């Protein structure tokens, strides 16, 4: 998954811990590809070792998260 993941369905997370916990719990995110296309996804769609960019705090903040074997 190469793109930026935004919380789906109007959700928002206030801090890093909350967005990471939601991603690891399998909550849906909307992935926006750099081509302008978007779709829904979750951690189940990511591969081990893959780095994803998660947006939070009203989409004003972002972090990079690497999916580990423990996440699967």
Describe the structure.
The chain has 72 residues and is mainly beta. It has one domain. The chain has 1 helix and 5 strands; from the N terminus they run E-H-E-E-E-E. A 5-stranded mixed beta sheet has the order 3-2-1-4-5, with helices on one face. A hairpin with a 5-residue loop joins strand 2 and strand 3. The radius of gyration is 11 Å and the shape is globular.
Provide a concise account of the structure shown:
By secondary structure, the chain is mainly beta. Helices cover 12% and strands 33% of the residues.
- Which residues sit in consecutive blocks of at least 5 with pLDDT less than 50? none
How many structural domains are formed by the residues?
Answer: 1
Oligomer classification = single chain
Major sheet details: 5 strands, mixed
Number of helices: 1
Q: What's the end-to-end separation, in Å?
A: 15 Å
Provide the succession of SSEs.
Answer: EHEEEE
Q: Work out the helicity level.
A: 10-25%
The number of strands is: 5
Radius of gyration: 11 Å
- Globular, elongated, flat, extended or rod-shaped: what is the shape? globular
Strand order of the largest sheet: 3-2-1-4-5
Strand pairing plus helix content: what structural class?
Answer: mainly beta
Portion in strands: 25-35%
**Average pLDDT score:** 94
């Amino acid at each position: 998954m190469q793109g930026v993941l935004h919380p789906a369905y109007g959700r928002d997370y206030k801090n890093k811990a909350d967005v990471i916990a939601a991603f690891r719990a399998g909550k849906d995110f909307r992935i926006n590809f750099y081509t302008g296309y978007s779709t829904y996804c979750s951690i189940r769609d990511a591969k081990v070792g893959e780095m994803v960019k998660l947006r939070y705090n009203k989409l004003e903040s972002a972090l990079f998260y690497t999916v580990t074997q423990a996440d699967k």
